[in-house]
Amino acid sequence: KNQVEQSPQSLIILEGKNCTLQCNYTVSPFSNLRWYKQDTGRGPVSLTIMTFSENTKSNGRYTATLDADTKQSSLHITASQLSDSASYICVVTAYILTGGGNKLTFGTGTQLKVEL
Amino acid sequence: EAQVTQNPRYLITVTGKKLTVTCSQNMNHEYMSWYRQDPGLGLRQIYYSMNVEVTDKGDVPEGYKVSRKEKRNFPLILESPSPNQTSLYFCASSLSTGTSTEAFFGQGTRLTVV
To answer: Are B47 and B33 in contact (CB under 8 A)?
Structure first.
């Protein structure tokens, strides 16, 4: 069964500090891994998308890494800001072998709170 | 502005009263899908559509219907809502189901069934 597990469940950090969120998955056949940011009461917004051959991708202060061998990914946030307070969701996509297309499996997210 | 629009944003209804949540995208995307989000469970796919008149079940389709008569619209229909369908619902669209195609999500519809 395809699964995506994220840790920690929640995290509180001080403004300006860095943090790293983890994602482990058992999804096959692997197509890509995505990180989304979801503000409270709003829809998820894409931060990064990485395919099998990519092991790091940045989007401003967000840097995602992917180790396809160990099936792990991390999202590193640098110099955190209050506006970074949100849920961060790891999503792993698998190829659909019959019929084509891709299927997304969502993690339950890491709830990040950035405080003064 | 490119966007996915859901309506209504909030809805309280009674058990058994049919309702429709609308979803519209202005990006000419082929692929659209509906998800529900419940605490501790992550987003789960209800139904998806790969193009007009092509729909298929996701992971949790029971109690829901969809239609795709036009490319831009993908309404979610609850024929006889029950309290276990109380949830936060998201519509999403993407250009295709290709490897690195980005998915865009609507703002969500918070449904309460009493």
So the answer is: yes
Q: Hey, is the C-beta of B50 within 8 angstroms of any chain A C-beta?
A: yes
Of residues B45, B97, B107, nearest to A42 (C-beta): B107
pLDDT in tens, B53-76: 999 999 999 999 999 999 999 999
pLDDT digits (tens, 9 = 90+) for A14-30: 999 999 999 999 988 88
Q: Is A105 exposed, middle or buried, given 0-12, 13-18 or 19+ CB atoms closer than 10 A?
A: buried
CA distance B76 to B86: 14
Question: Is the CB of residue A1 less than 8 Å away from at least one CB of chain B?
Answer: no
The reply to whether omega before B61 is within 30° of 0 (cis) is: no
Q: What tokens were used for A49?
A: 């998308």
Q: Using a CB-CB distance cutoff of 8 angstroms, which residues of chain A are in contact with residue B99? A: 31-32, 51, 93, 102
Order of strands, sheet of A56-59, starting from the edge strand that comes earlier in the sequence: A3-7, A19-26, A72-77, A62-67, A56-59
